Amino acid sequence: MKRLALVLFLGMAVVFANAQTKTSVKTEDLQKAITDNIAKDFKDYKIQHAFKVDTKSVITYEIMVKKDAQLLILTYDANGKFIKKDEPRKSEAKPAVKTTTTTTTTTTTKPEPKKDPAPTAPTK
Known about the structure:
By secondary structure, the chain is of the alpha+beta class. The protein has helices at 2-17, 32-41; strands spanning 20-24, 46-55, 58-67, 70-77, 82-86.
């Protein structure tokens, strides 16, 4: 029982140690340094989503921008300084709805009736 309690305690400690909160931010509420950088360095991209991320009291901003069909995630520090550019993982990108149709055909064959063995000639 003590081992179980210890394992649960350690598991909870790991969860809280890696705690991260992600809060949606309106585009107009972003720092001027962020919007200026996007306008300058990512000229034809439009802001799709913006998030304020708090990881262990370190604040960053993740901005998802789009140009045509290309999505990018731009990361900025708390002061609005550009940190990095990433392409979203498939789970982050919103995939187009795709429908597929599957057709299944089942064929049943009747077993052939058993044939009597061929008559054998009488042996002498």
